[in-house]
Specification:
Elements: E1 14-20, E2 23-29, E3 32-37, E4 40-47, H1 51-59, E5 61-67, H2 73-80, E6 96-98, E7 104-106, E8 110-124, E9 127-139, H3 148-155, E10 166-169, E11 175-176, E12 197-200
């Protein structure tokens, strides 16, 4: 099976944020879709290893900041390549506002944000799907949304020429040095699984 076919699905890229006990956290998300219009509800799928998943499961609320073209790779590194269990992702980052649900949203290179309360939680083995009812939605600019394809072609740094053999993560570029990639291997940087690794010779 050629999993590259999945990259032909149109994904947007978002910063998903949550808040618990004075702690703010966020992660990069590419799975957001509207599922109903009245009431207006969206579905998000969040990896269970993400600290944001844990917070949303407890607090039952989240915000989605839709990233626009022009977003720098630093945003993806800040919110996607480190865990909120280990670092404060918002330290020295001031391009935020707090919505009425108490959760931050990103104002830098964001064309819209949405606030939701969780109505349903579905276990998807490696991920949790949260169905959230929107309580606020605001357009911030007319800039086009960053798609996953745009990110791959225009934002993510190109892999450096290397003589290493092994497996490269197609999402963040991390290289696993080894002949055989374990079936249950998870990228230590972006938390993607083996389906998102490619062989390098």
């Amino acid at each position: 099976m050629d999993t590259n076919a999945l990259y032909k699905i149109v994904y947007g890229l978002y910063v998903l944020t949550a808040h618990e006990n004075e702690k703010d956290n966020g992660c990069i998300l590419n799975t957001v879709m509207q599922v109903t219009s009245d009431p207006c509800m969206v579905a998000i799928a969040v990896n269970k290893q993400n600290y944001t998943n844990e917070i949303i499961s407890k607090t039952r609320k989240f915000n989605i900041s839709t990233l626009a073209e022009g977003t720098k790779f630093d945003i993806f590194k800040r919110f996607g390549f480190q865990s909120g269990r280990d670092v404060d992702k918002f330290v020295n980052f001031y391009d935020t506002k707090r919505s009425p649900n108490g959760v931050l949203y990103i104002t830098q290179n964001t064309n819209a944000f949405m606030s939701a309360y969780v109505k349903q939680e579905i276990d998807l083995e490696t991920h949790t799907m949260f169905i959230g009812q929107l309580v606020e939605a605001v357009c911030l600019s007319d800039k086009p949304t960053v798609t996953y394809d745009f990110y791959q072609k225009n934002i993510k740094p190109k892999p450096e020429n290397t003589q290493k053999k092994g497996w490269r993560c197609k999402v963040c570029g991390y290289v696993y040095d080894g002949e055989n990639l374990p079936e249950d291997y998870i990228c230590p940087i972006c938390k993607h699984g083996v389906a998102d690794f490619e062989r390098i010779l």
